[in-house]
Write a structure and sequence with these properties.
Number of strands: 10
Distance between the termini: 62 Å
Low-confidence stretches: none
Number of helices: 14
Radius of gyration: 24 Å
Helix content: 40-55%
Shape: globular
Strand content: 5-15%
Length: 351
């Protein structure tokens, strides 16, 4: 390896320094002011060398303390924002997050829970652990806690730019459960940014989402990318159905071109899952596609995620707000027509 493809020795030496006292911790704003960091950033950003630097950082991350790992991961996120490959360092940064969360997990609990003796006991135990920390343990917790919120930033940068990363993220079931619990049931060591990863875990990417309209015996296949939840899908799909209303046999006005997805919206259809229909007939009007659930959680038929848009007055009773927000600048949710369903396909999905 040439000198040009190495991390600066001064930077590596700094990153490997142990955090043995509170004054050893370094804040992000101080890290980016380092001369070696500024020079490396200027020389490599937007160049092929950025990918090489990411690979070197990925190899170095497992050696580092939570504080130093979060700083280096933040640098990795900057390279990715500048166009570098979002996959190179993702696994290493995610593992750094997992290590930090594992350190903090015994101290996280919900002290506000009521009518749950088991949860209350867990909260008391977490508080007792926090109150009995040795100075060395306290230093580790005080380093790992802010490191988690800092690690979220590059992880979101990498997640929102790569479906491969998102698939790998979802494969970490235990980590996702920890993230969810430490976001929703944790008042002892609350986080500022961790909820973004909890929301990212709910995103759905479906190359062929099937939408069936029983009233007109029509339907379509759409590409649904980066969808927050079913409510978000409904808000994106309803204008798309209106755009293609003539082909679908619908009597609806075409939406205004270029109109933003509304923050507040309501259902124009009763949105159901595939098992609502059998043998072409509605058998379960309560088989709703639940609004806050991930789009991918809906039942599948013939290998595809299916939504049924039933044209009924019951549909307009469902309203929602705030489910179409973008999680990140690089989060670009969309639904696009792939093709229309044939009459035979519609019948098969309603069978």
């Amino acid at each position: 390896m040439t000198l040009a493809t190495r991390l600066p020795e001064s930077l590596v030496e700094f990153l490997r320094q142990p955090v043995s006292a509170p004054e050893d911790r370094v804040e992000a704003q101080d890290f980016v002011r380092r001369t070696d960091v500024r020079e490396l950033y200027r020389e490599t950003l937007g160049t092929p060398r950025a990918d090489e630097m990411l690979a070197l950082c990925a190899a170095l991350l497992p050696e580092l303390s939570p504080n130093r790992a979060s700083l280096l991961a933040l640098f990795c996120g900057s390279w990715v924002e500048g166009g570098a490959n979002p996959c190179i360092a993702f696994a290493a940064v995610l593992e750094a997050l997992a290590r930090a969360l594992a350190t903090l997990r015994p101290y996280c609990a919900d002290e506000d829970v009521e009518d749950d003796e088991e949860a209350q006991a867990a909260a008391r135990q977490a508080r007792e652990r926090l109150d009995s920390l040795t100075p060395a343990q306290s230093l580790l917790i005080d380093s790992a806690h802010p490191a988690v919120d800092l690690l979220v930033l590059p992880l979101m940068t990498m997640l929102m730019r790569s479906r491969e990363n998102h698939r790998d993220f979802l494969a970490n079931g235990e980590l996702l459960r920890d993230i969810d619990a430490m976001v929703k049931s944790n008042t002892t060591l609350p986080f500022e940014n961790l909820h973004f990863l909890d929301h990212a875990a709910a995103l759905t990417y479906e190359d062929e989402l099937v939408v069936v309209l029983p009233a007109t015996r029509s339907g379509l296949v759409v590409s649904a990318q980066g969808i927050n939840c079913n409510f978000h899908a409904f808000s994106l799909l309803q204008p798309l159905l209106a755009v293609h209303g003539e082909q679908l046999g619908l009597r609806v006005a075409a939406p205004v071109a270029g109109q933003e997805v509304p923050r507040e919206d309501s259902a124009q259809y009763l949105w159901l899952q595939a098992f609502a229909f059998e043998k072409g007939e509605l058998v379960n009007s309560l088989a709703w596609a639940w609004g806050e659930a991930p789009l991918r959680s809906n039942s599948r038929k013939h290998g595809h995620c299916v939504l049924i848009a039933l044209d009924t007055a019951e549909g307009v009773s469902r309203t929602w707000s705030g489910f179409a927000d973008r999680l990140h600048d690089a989060h670009q949710p969309s639904v696009e027509l792939v093709r229309f369903l044939s009459e035979e396909e519609v019948a098969a999905y309603l069978e």
